[in-house]
Design brief:
Elements (H helix, E strand, L loop, with lengths): L4 H9 L10 H4 L7 E2 L2 E2 L30 E2 L3 E3 L17 E3 L5 E6 L7 H14 L3 E5 H4 L2 H4 L5 H4 L3 E3 L12 E6 L1 H10 L7 E5 L14 H9 L5 E4 L2 E13 L15 E14 L2 E5 L7 E7 L2 E8 L1 E5 L7 H4 L11 E7 L9 E4 L4 E5 L7 E5 L2 E6 L4 E6 L4 E4 L4 H12 L19
Parallel strand pairs: 6-7, 6-9, 7-8, 9-10
Antiparallel strand pairs: 1-2, 3-4, 4-5, 11-24, 12-13, 12-23, 14-17, 14-21, 15-16, 15-20, 17-18, 18-19, 20-23, 21-22
Length: about 450
């Protein structure tokens, strides 16, 4: 799935419609297969021709994953490097640029945290009065009594544009995002944009802060650099997840009178399928839920059954998510620029079930095993938790819409600094050296 990025960026700058770009991996909601020259291409290896056939099987999806879209929101895009010889730029050369000066910013503040009220007010005053920007905030943020009852902040509040999650679509109105809080604010920002994500600048005002590299002390100069387009980017890949559920509707049986004269209980009648899609930044977690039985789920890769998970569950994570739940479950930590998907079991009832890393371009499918004693539960970045029953399926692959996270220095330095400061990676008292004895002459 190769694409000329310079033409794409130029077409966006000229105001061409989004329909000119079409990625089969992300836009075919009902069928995850694409069509070329009138012939349907199957994604599964099981569709390969029988032995002796003259036809040669071809993969229809690159193992390196889909080409990431390099336009972020309505005005931001990747600065093209004319010296690059790769289809995907060297991560060290990924820089932010603007087709037009940014005018709107979404400020995401951690809810119910009194320590963030003053930084939030200072940032909003700076953006509205000194930069003349349109500030979007969530409506429930302004319902905080400390903000609602602040008369001095009233003139600034009147300039805000507000929205409600799951009700208002702001995806085409935001030029860039500023997060105040911990890593959860970045995950929340990702959930608001199911397509192209504007650049995200995250300030460390939470507890851990692995994904939030900026300190708030010098926020004016740092925000100004971003507005001027002077910033490095790391493209954090996301997972495109499709949940297909067997939709059943409870209907009362008419004239269903039992022997004791009581109307018989409701029965379930299958009336179709329910399809839901999510963009996930950290991980998809499938677990046993409240049941005391082992989870028993089958994991397929490109149509082939690769294993059955018998344990507490399984985590499918991005490289960004490899330092979250997956790390706690014993997985390796992967730099966000590595194109990969990680599969990590949760407390497997097997001594040999180790976490594995698969190419970003594969399609994973998770279903309840036919022999499963209980249902399973799934969550997406810790949200939208729901039950998975027999016949339901969860399809997972790499999304072509990454989250462009603005770096404090560069992608490599920021990552290792987060490992050292937040996770205390490889912290140990150093071993003493041998004392050097003076040689006797």
């Amino acid at each position: 799935m190769e694409m000329n990025r310079e033409k794409l960026c130029a077409s966006k700058a000229d105001g061409s419609s989004d329909s000119a770009y079409h990625c089969a991996a992300c836009h075919d909601d009902e069928e995850w297969s694409n069509t070329s020259r009138g012939r349907a291409k199957s994604r599964s290896l099981s569709a390969s021709p029988a032995l002796g056939s003259t036809k040669e099987f071809r993969r229809t999806r690159s193992l390196h994953g889909p080409c990431p879209v390099t336009t972020f929101g309505p005005k931001a895009c990747m600065l093209q490097n004319p010296k690059t010889i790769m289809h995907i730029q060297d991560p060290a050369s990924q820089r932010l640029t603007w087709n037009k000066p940014p005018k709107s910013v979404l400020v995401i503040k951690k809810i119910r945290d009194a320590s963030l009220l003053q930084p939030f007010k200072e940032l909003c005053v700076y953006l509205t009065e000194e930069n003349n920007m349109i500030v979007y905030v969530e409506k429930k943020v302004l319902e905080d009594p400390a903000i609602a009852n602040d008369d001095n902040f009233g003139p600034v509040k009147k300039k805000f544009c507000t929205f409600r999650e799951d009700y208002d679509d702001i995806s085409n109105q935001i030029d860039f995002i500023i997060c105040l809080g911990g890593d959860g604010t970045l995950l929340y920002a990702s959930s608001l944009f199911q397509g192209s994500v504007p650049p995200v600048m995250a300030f460390h005002l939470g507890s851990l802060g692995f994904l939030t590299p900026f300190n708030f002390e010098n926020f004016q100069s740092q925000v100004t650099q971003v507005i001027e387009g002077n910033a490095a980017l790391v493209l954090r890949s996301r997972l495109k997840v499709k949940v297909v559920k067997e939709h059943r509707e409870k209907m009362t049986v008419q004239n269903g009178i039992e022997e004791n004269g009581v109307v018989s209980t409701n029965i379930e009648k299958e009336v179709g399928k329910q399809i839901m899609q999510y963009q996930v930044l950290n991980e998809v977690v499938v677990d046993r839920g409240p049941s005391s039985y082992l989870s028993n789920v089958d994991v397929f890769l490109d149509g082939h059954l690769i294993t059955t998970v018998q344990g507490d569950g399984v985590i499918v994570s991005t490289p960004t998510g490899s330092t979250a739940y997956a790390a706690a479950a014993g997985a390796s930590m992967i730099h966000p620029n590595v194109p990969a998907i990680m599969i990590t079991p949760i407390c497997p009832h097997s001594l040999s079930f180790r976490p594995i890393v698969v190419p970003a371009g594969v399609e994973l499918k998770i279903m309840l095993s036919p022999d499963a004693r209980n249902t399973a539960w799934v969550s997406f970045d810790g949200r939208k938790r729901q039950e998975i029953c027999h016949g339901d399926s969860i399809s997972i692959t790499t999304s072509c819409y990454p989250l462009p996270s603005i770096c404090f220095r560069d992608p490599v330095s920021d990552w290792f600094e987060s490992l050292a400061e937040c996770l205390h990676w490889n912290v140990r008292k150093k071993q003493n050296n041998f004392a050097v004895e003076e040689e006797e002459f």
